[in-house]
Amino acid sequence: MTDPQTLDALKAELLDVALEAAARAGAFLRDGRPDDLGVAATKTSAVDVVTEMDIASEKLITDFLAERRPDDGVLGEEGASREGTSGVQWVIDPIDGTVNYLYGRPDWSVSIAARKDGETIVGVVAAPMRAETYRAVLGQGAFVNDRPAHARVAPPFEQALVGTGFGYLEARRVHQADVVRQLIPKVRDIRRGGSAAIDLCDIAVGRMDAYYERGLNPWDFAAGDLIAREAGALTGGRPGEPVSPELTIAAPPGLFEPLQKWLEELGAWHD
Ligand code: IPD
Ligand code: CA
Questions:
Q1: For the whole prediction, is pTM greater than 0.90?
Q2: Beta 88-96 vs 73-76: how paired, if at all?
Q3: Which end of the chain has a smaller Cβ tally under 10 Å, C or N?
Q4: Which atom of ligand 1 is nearest to the CA of 98?
Q5: Same domain flag for 190 and 103
Q6: Which phi and psi angles does 244 have, rounded to 5°?
Q7: What does the buried/exposed string (b/e) look like for 203-233 if buried means 16 or more CB atoms within 10 Å of the residue's CB?
Q8: Could you tell me the CATH number of the domain that includes residue 233?
Q9: Distance from the alpha carbon of residue 247 to the mean position of ligand 1, in angstroms
Q10: How far apart are CA 13 and CA 119, in angstroms?
């Protein structure tokens, strides 16, 4: 076990490194986006795209981490994968919201989390087109730029503004659309932002009441999950389960529980 002082020093160092990496990648992506940006490759389906900028951003981040923290492990959306020896693992989404980025829409982000022995202890999400960076350290609260971030107080269920997202596979989307169809008459409205990391940070800063999505990967939710929790929201998956690729839910106490129950009944956790 790491003693508390050493752990605090480690958290401070990892936060510093994550903030610097996210700032560098964010500036690179904001200032370097080619006007004729196109699709470099597709992944799980024809609409699941990668651009040259996703790949370059991941390289920029992993090169920086290798220089500053050479003994750490790395897991990145575009294939970065390294076993470390330090017990620290970086979980990286070099562009979360690639489709928004491809179209020149502003809601995309760089998401970087640090896990120690499997637990996320630092999360940073940079949203350059909003001029905002969200960050959290486990047990130390969440911040947007240098202001403390707080989730909203739970509204009545029927007044909740609920964000969600959709996967890239047709069969999954058909079911996701069916879940939304049943949820939309029950709540204030639905939003589909296009960057799961920003959606989770929007819970942290009170710009949305709740968010859920099936099919996220660790790089989509690792940083935003910690930021939402440190801002006072509850996060989880199916009842009793933590956030996972199966299901991610974030909402303030009082709204989280009925939403989780609804999503369980609607089968939001399966295809
Ligand atoms: C996607 C975004 C989107 C979510 C998808 C993710 P990507 O990540 O976070 O909001 O709905 O499930 O895959 O592909 O832009 O990195
Ligand atoms: Ca992503």
A1: yes
A2: parallel
A3: N
A4: 15
A5: no
A6: -160, 175
A7: bbbbbbbbbbbbbbebbbbbbbbbbbbbbbb
A8: 3.40.190.80
A9: 14
A10: 16
Q: From CA 256, how far away is CA 232, in angstroms rounded?
A: 11
249 and 169 housed in the same domain = yes
271 in a structural domain: no
Tokens at 54, concatenated = 């996703």
Counting the structural domains of the chain, the total is: 2
DSSP-derived letter for residue 172 is H
Tens digit of pLDDT for each residue in 134-154? 999 999 999 999 999 999 999
Q: Please work out whether the CB of residue 98 comes within 6 Å of at least one atom of ligand 1.
A: yes
**Quick check: CB of 163 below 6 Å from ligand 1?**
no
Beta carbon of 73 within 6 Å of any ligand 1 atom: no
Kindly list the distances between the CA atom of residue 139 and the CA atoms of 47, 94, 123, 253, in Å, as whole numbers in the listed order: 38, 26, 12, 18
Residue-range definition of the domain harbouring residue 164:
157-266
Angle between helices 52-68 and 4-32 (to 10 degrees): 150
Helices (H) and strands (E) in the chain, counts: 7, 15
- Are residues 121 and 184 located together in one domain of the fold? no
